[in-house]
Amino acid sequence: MKLKDKVCIVTGATSGMGKAISEAFAKEGAKLILSGRNVERGEALVSQLKNSIFISGDISEEATNEKLVKAAITNFGKLDIISLNAGVLGLGNVVDLSISTWHHTLNTNLSSIFYLSKYALPYLLKANEGNILINSSIAAFKSFPNHPAYCASKAAALALMKQMAVEYAPKIRVNAMCPGPVNTPLLWDSAKAFENIDAAVENAKNATLLQRLGTPEDIAKLALFLVSEDSNWITGSAITIDGGILNS
Ligand SMILES: NC(=O)c1ccc[n+]([C@@H]2O[C@H](COP(=O)([O-])OP(=O)(O)OC[C@H]3O[C@@H](n4cnc5c(N)ncnc54)[C@H](OP(=O)(O)O)[C@@H]3O)[C@@H](O)[C@H]2O)c1
Fold it and tell me: Could you report the per-residue pLDDT of 177-187, keeping only the tens digit for each?
């Protein structure tokens, strides 16, 4: 029970990696506030996991983030961990991308990290071993066609992660995961940026040194490590988890 009685907020909990992370944290004894917009998937997850509450809302809006922190304090009395997974792609090259898609992508992938951290930090500072974990991407280091807002937001998320690690040490640890291609709905949406969707996913798989796509569970194992005591000398780090694709 690596997270026994730890209170965690998990964003993007209704799908893919955030869902697998929620399941992994619950298995280790965490109490969870789960966030997403899809009420049906959120309620289905809550019915599976003990000590979990689903709060629906758009994470790109400041008020949703404040609501998540309030829910943690009202229902569980404290907050120990925030796991920031919600993300969107905002596909389109710089010329074609609408201004509103640019802002929506930055607000979802980057501003939400600032908003949730802003409201959570006063409570995380009171916790024993407060922890912030950001789900960035290899897109912070390697660019893909038609992903300008995505790449920019994921790189900026790493800068924000490092800044918060400096600012709030030694009380709080702040780290990021940088996944490569993981088999989730977002990966298949991302492949729409290429001419042939199936070929793009197959090419991504073949470009990994380990010759497979990641699974949400692969990422959940790293997330559990980074928020638990097992990683208690790691902060300000961006950990690549990509089947070796950045070295291929
Ligand atoms: N899959 C990959 O290959 C890959 C690689 C590197 C990094 N990542 C990153 O990993 C994270 C998780 O992605 P995933 O692959 O697991 O994708 P996914 O299965 O599509 O899940 C995305 C999650 O984000 C939530 N979300 C999106 N916009 C939101 C908004 N405005 N308000 C509230 N929730 C919102 C979605 O919830 P609702 O639909 O309920 O709103 C969903 O739970 C993302 O940050 C992504 O950028 C993914």
Answer: 999 999 999 99
Atom of ligand 1 nearest to the CA of 11: 34
Q: CA quadruple 123, 47, 222, 30: dihedral positive or negative? A: positive
What span, in angstroms and rounded, lies between the C-alpha atoms of 149 and 208?
Answer: 24
As a whole number of angstroms, the distance between CA 125 and CA 222 comes to 23
Backbone φ, ψ for residue 240 (5° rounding): -80, 135
Topology adopted by domain 7-182+215-241? Rossmann fold (3.40.50)
Can you give the pTM of this predicted structure? 0.98
pLDDT tens digits, residue range 112-166?
Answer: 999 999 999 999 999 999 999 999 999 999 999 999 999 999 999 999 999 999 9
Active site includes 168?
no
Q: Count other Cβ atoms within 10 Å, centred on residue 238.
A: 17
- Centre of ligand 1 to C-alpha 29, Å, is 24
Strands 238-241 and 81-84: unpaired
- CB-based contacts of 150, cutoff 8 Å, min separation 6: 87, 88, 89, 90, 91, 105, 109, 137, 139, 144
**From the CA of 191, how far away is ligand 1's center (Å)?**
15
